[in-house]
Design goal:
The complex is a heterotrimer, with two copies of chain A (about 425 residues) and one copy of chain B (about 160 residues).
Chain A: H1 26-32, H2 34-41, H3 60-63, H4 66-70, H5 89-95, H6 121-135, H7 138-141, H8 167-175, H9 185-191, E1 201-203, E2 208-210, H10 219-228, E3 234-235, E4 242-243, H11 250-255, H12 259-262, H13 267-271, E5 274-277, E6 280-283, H14 294-297, H15 305-341, H16 348-369, H17 379-403, H18 414-417
Antiparallel strand pairs in A: 1-2, 3-4, 5-6
Chain B: H1 3-24, H2 34-37, H3 44-52, H4 61-65, H5 71-90, H6 102-124
The chains are: A mainly alpha (about 425), B mainly alpha (about 160).
Bound molecules: calcium ion (2 copies).
Chain lengths: ~425, ~160, ~425
């Protein structure tokens, strides 16, 4: 078909203005593509909440105070909000209390935290290299970063091809022997989101952004990866558990043989459905919860939109209640391990086994909890992860009790009995 | 004189063919009426769903299922797939599950684009080919939602329920 | 189109022979409906195994010896096989070692066990009444029962309408305020299977067949039902737990808002798909695993049959491994409760709580395990049930340890360490 078209009829060319490679300013690209640009700008002002997601910046800690306990000792216990649209990325990363801006503090936040927040990055990565970028401090980088997420994070200027712009994604794919340049267009409609919507960690003192995918992107492969390099994000207070924090593993969860992924559906199919301007259709760049526009997001594939939205509800409710049971089990385990760790006579080997199970169970839970679809991206996989996580958490508690030979540590339902419940720091 | 038997044979053959054509309404197969396709009840489901779908007002089966770039390829495809269908049907080789073949799908895709070109121009363009069939998303556009009957009632004078 | 068909080509009328109401002999019905009858007869000789189901009579106990432990003290620990096609029902019920045929034994098997095995039943129920039928002994009833499952179990003679033939189902629906005579045809294509593919128990000494649905058919509603009437199937040896046995709750599981049920799909759509004889379509009466004929069973709705079969696999594997973890947790709990129950100084209240959790956890597990789709009928619901069950089993073990104040009872992985594994009684 394309062969039959006179070149000048094609929408990508001619372009009104020439956009230079990695142009950070999306409004310039927007002159060529007003539809994409105007929908993109809508991500700024969305503020509708859905049952479990949506674009309102509510506090996850206030909504479920169990998480204050689970993240104790780590910045996420201070401030952890629902994410919003792409245009808010800079405002939000600069506002979060998770940043440590104390100059000279060994834990001072690096520029790495800007990695997924700005269309200035592709040009900066080219200039400074990944290492140069990541070893700078956050405030040091701030003046160079003026644009939120934008066209340059996903597109190649000129051709408008979808590309991998984050060098860490490029490296992670390489570690698995993959070359994104061989991917099909439909694959890129998912992979482009993996520039950011993935689990990551920081390597070394330079805080190099890295995706833990060398063994694969399944939960057990990622845990193996971290265990092999003895990585930890923090030590849990009182238990001494070397903890792992999970972040937005949408890509890993979705591509783990979910029903939609196996059916060939891409992230962009649901989150960037085609919409119309007159007769012509284009990809909506107003990326948000598909539950806010299910007619467009689901309706072309599923005639009965009420049915599918009902299913999302059903699935999310089931995942939500199961996730809370897992949290209760984790809190019981943590309480027991703290008591055991406080006892100098505790059996070190049993206690250590308890910690290992706590580490594993909590990372598995977090992999589900930090994932933003409340189970919908891959319901069965997610429920299996929660089942295993609860099982490990309970076993961690049992080992803690064994380590000090004290069945009093087997108390359950601790969170329920807490009065008052913890509140996020003001 | 010696040609008469041949003439008679030819005439008889023509008459026989003519009768055959008249009785069986075979020339209909050269036409475009969708009901013709449905002569083979094996395609009832496709017919019924097309009949009740949005495209009935604007399409016949052949608008989607035969190429329309030029008259030659139209009739070649028509002859080829038509003979295939008739052969499979007549020999009782109708598969349990009739499925569009890969080359059929390409013909169909060409036709979707033929009619909807201006709509899909934006999305078809780009340095990478558009590598999906339209009906991966528009799953109900051609033949309705599969498996779910769109006629929830039955004709009770013909099929009494008590 | 339908108008063009000459009336005499229609399937139901006229019939060649007149079939009397509740005719037990399917071959007589079969004269009118040779296609249905010939496919029905194929249920006799199917013997292909699928990964988790199929029609080969393998032993579930040999396949997963954990179940020998879990059913200890109950006939299911002696003999528990994969089910086969409908025509084998009489052979199989008569052959099982679960029957107790000792005359005068208080546990002698009642005729109730024939309830779901024969097309003689509808006529017998009419003659004897439910109570009369069920209070007879199994061998006493044997001479009256000569036909396996047949047309009379599902159809009304003459009209061929689908009907509820089992009085217990009629009662159970009534208890919920439902009248099956108001159901649509599509509903009956599911409800007719509920004559048999349901959880049941026997009430009183007369062993009246009853479905525990008065509160509803969800797992928690059924547990509540049994708890309220203090019902138990047996006492678990050594733990003293008042146990519940679950049986083939296909109907309850499938109708618990599964994705297919909510989409309006009926049992018969998958298990009795339309097949063709020449140009005419009829429902295949060769009821078996749809994985043996996915083209017919799934292809009518799903274009990509390989995709859906792959999904079944994925789902079943996930459910299977999760189910085995639950079994391990149950065995650990049972071992702990046995030890605690043997200790005269055990805290009675804690020990009793442990038993209650064991009862609940094992019934939940069994509800999944005895269901015959290995999770496919309702993946998310089933995985949630397993997650909760494991959680309760672990808590049961913890309570047992607390009751005797002995952390040694917290041993885990007991089944894995067993050597040799238990084997079914020869
Ligand atoms: Ca959000
Ligand atoms: Ca079977």
């Amino acid at each position: 078909f394309m062969k039959n078209q006179p070149a000048q009829e094609r929408a990508i060319l001619p372009q009104i203005v020439e956009v230079k490679p990695m142009e950070p300013d999306s409004s310039i690209w927007g002159q060529n593509f007003p539809n994409q640009w105007s929908t993109f700008q809508q991500t700024k002002d969305n503020n509708i909440k859905t049952t479990y997601g949506g674009s309102e910046k509510f506090s996850h800690l206030a909504e479920d105070p169990r998480q204050i306990i689970l993240f104790a000792g780590y910045p996420f216990s201070k401030d952890y909000n629902e994410e919003r649209g792409h245009m808010n990325s800079l405002i939000d990363v600069r506002a979060t209390k998770r940043l440590n801006l104390t100059p000279g503090d060994p834990k001072e936040t690096h520029a790495t935290c800007y990695s997924c927040k700005s269309s200035d990055n592709p040009a900066l990565w080219q200039k400074l290299g990944l290492e140069g970028f990541d070893s700078m401090m956050f405030p040091e980088m701030t003046p160079d970063i003026t644009n939120p997420i934008g066209c340059a994070n996903c597109h190649e200027a000129g051709t408008m091809r979808l590309i991998v712009t984050n060098p860490s994604l490029e490296n992670a794919l390489k570690a698995q022997g993959k070359d994104w340049k061989t991917f099909t267009r439909q694959e890129m409609r998912t992979v482009v989101c993996a520039n950011c919507h993935v689990e990551y960690y920081f390597v070394g003192d330079k805080k190099i952004l890295t995706f833990p995918w060398a063994n694969g992107t399944r939960i057990d492969q990622i845990i193996d990866y971290y265990d092999n390099i003895n990585f930890k994000d923090w030590d849990y207070p009182g238990t001494g558990t070397p903890m792992l924090k999970a972040q937005h593993p949408e890509y890993e969860m979705y591509t783990a043989d979910s029903t939609h992924f196996k059916a060939g559906v891409a992230c962009a199919d649901c989150h960037m459905p085609y919409v119309r301007d007159g007769a012509a259709k284009f990809s909506s760049h107003d990326v948000h919860s598909p539950l806010l526009n299910p007619q467009q997001a689901c309706g072309q594939c599923h005639t009965d939109v009420d049915y599918v939205v009902g299913r999302v509800n059903e699935i999310q409710n089931q995942v939500f209640t199961t996730k809370q049971s897992t949290e209760d089990a984790l809190i019981d385990a943590i309480t027991a391990i703290q008591a055991a760790a406080a006892d100098p006579n505790a059996d070190a080997s049993l206690l250590d086994q308890a910690r290992q199970l706590h580490r594993k169970a909590q990372f598995m839970w977090d992999f589900v909890s930090a994932e933003n679809s409340m189970g919908f991206h891959n319901p069965e996989y997610i429920l299996k992860i929660l089942a295993d996580s609860t099982n490990y958490a309970r076993q961690a508690q049992m080992l803690a009790a064994q380590s000090v030979n004290d069945p009093a540590l087997l108390e359950t339902g601790i969170y329920d009995k807490m009065d008052p419940k913890p509140t996020p720091a003001p | 004189m010696t040609r008469l038997p041949i003439f008679i044979a030819i005439a008889a053959t023509l008459i026989a063919l003519g009768m055959f054509a008249y009785v069986t309404d075979a020339p209909a197969y050269a036409g475009t009426d969708s009901a013709t396709c449905n002569n083979c009840h094996v395609m009832d489901a496709q017919y019924e769903n097309w009949y009740h779908g949005g495209h009935r007002n604007v399409t016949e089966c052949v608008d989607c299922h035969l190429p329309h770039d030029n008259i030659v390829s139209y009739y070649i495809a028509k002859g080829r797939t038509g003979m295939h269908d008739v052969y499979m049907f007549s020999m009782g080789k109708t598969p349990e599950l009739i499925r569009a073949k890969e080359d059929t799908k390409q013909i169909i895709q060409g036709n979707c684009v033929r009619c909807h070109q201006s709509t899909v121009e934006n999305i078809m363009l780009g340095p990478q080919p558009f590598d999906r069939y339209c009906w991966e998303c528009h799953r109900a556009a051609a033949h309705g939602q599969r498996g779910i009957s769109i006629v929830p009632y039955q004709d009770s004078s013909l099929y009494p329920t008590k």
